[in-house]
Design a protein that fits this description.
Length: 153
């Protein structure tokens, strides 16, 4: 069941369930200035082709940058961003008391292929799309698969 809420901070929050998993989308978490600064930082990162989705797809490498906790703590923009994500995740999933374990940036270029994969079981995964602007004609979509491997967007 989909449910949309507009909270007191002006955030748009969409809740849905795919099988037993809760999926929550929060829009409006960051102001335009922070979004532009994050885009600039993410655009200039040193990415390397070191990541793959599953043990069955090790030859399908993706562009990725793994942040060190030290870098997140030292950079005020990255610290503000990561703190706000953890705060929002804690508000949405209070029973899990989320803590930051890992932050990575993934760069999708034209023609890149992602395979369906499962993130940390029992954990909370937060996705942030680092584009300062988006045009629907660029396409791109995140889908979630249920146990029958049917896609939900």
């Amino acid at each position: 069941m989909d449910r949309t809420i507009l909270d007191t901070d002006g955030l748009t929050i969409l809740h849905r369930t795919v099988d037993e998993a809760r999926v929550t989308v929060i829009d409006g978490l960051f102001d335009a200035g922070l979004v532009r600064m994050l885009h600039t930082i993410l655009d200039r990162l040193p990415y390397s082709r070191t990541d793959y989705d599953t043990e069955d797809t090790p030859d399908n490498l993706h562009w990725m940058h793994e942040f060190s906790r030290k870098r997140l703590a030292e950079n005020p923009v990255l610290r503000s961003w990561s703190d706000r994500v953890v705060e929002a995740a804690g508000a949405v999933f209070p029973e899990r008391a989320p803590v930051l374990n890992r932050v990575s940036a993934h760069c999708q270029t034209f023609g890149s292929r992602q395979s369906a994969h499962t993130d940390l079981a029992g954990g909370v995964t937060a996705l942030y799309y680092g584009n300062a602007e988006w045009d629907e004609s660029w396409e791109g979509e995140t889908v979630f698969f249920d146990a029958r491997r049917e896609a939900h967007s």
